[in-house]
Design a protein that fits this description.
coenzyme F420 binding, 4 helices, alpha+beta, Split_barrel_FMN-bd, 165 residues, 8 strands, oxidoreductase, Pnp Oxidase, Chain A, globular, 32% helix, eight-stranded antiparallel beta sheet
Length: 165
């Protein structure tokens, strides 16, 4: 697929993603947590979280909705970028920090993060591909090893209420 094709997919979904984020934020998480992605190869009941992070270069705050899974009490997000050949900016910003803010439905928290390795990574990847089957084609379309990020809650936060900078 590469960066050009992945960029096309993101551009086509840009309005939808902005609307999804606004709905999630405006409702305090009561709406937007579960979304039907069957039209694009996903599941009818696909769970989404919000991540809030600071730009490592800009210092700006960003909020992004992402598909997530739960493995052994840890939240899992996938840095797929639609199969692009480069990592998503949110992933690079997380790697540059010790914690990240996460909201799931109406609950928000600060979380530490880690990346699973070896057998654990394989098992978590299989699980995430079951939750959102397009991840399989995303990985096939790039030589980049798509990162998995596992999040563990460390303290509660107020739900996200504003749009990013």
């Amino acid at each position: 697929m590469g960066d050009v094709d992945a960029a096309t997919i993101r551009a086509e979904r840009s309005d939808w993603m902005k609307e999804h984020l606004a709905m999630y934020l405006d409702s305090g998480g009561a709406k937007g947590h579960i979304v039907d992605l069957s039209a694009i190869g996903g599941r009818e009941m696909t769970t989404h979280c919000l991540i809030r992070y600071r730009g490592r270069k800009s210092g700006s705050t960003y909020i992004k909705p992402l598909i997530y899974g739960n493995v052994g009490g840890e939240i899992v997000i996938v840095a797929s970028k639609g199969g692009a050949d480069t990592h998503p900016e949110w992933y690079l910003n997380i790697v540059a920090s010790k914690t990240i803010d996460v909201q799931i439905a109406t609950q928000a928290f600060e979380a530490t993060w880690r990346e699973p390795e070896a057998t654990e990574r394989h098992d978590v990847w299989e699980y995430m591909c079951h939750l959102y089957p397009p991840y399989v084609s995303y990985q096939r379309s790039t030589s980049r090893h798509i990162p998995l990020v596992m999040l563990k809650a460390v303290r509660p936060l107020a739900v996200f209420t504003q749009t990013p900078d």
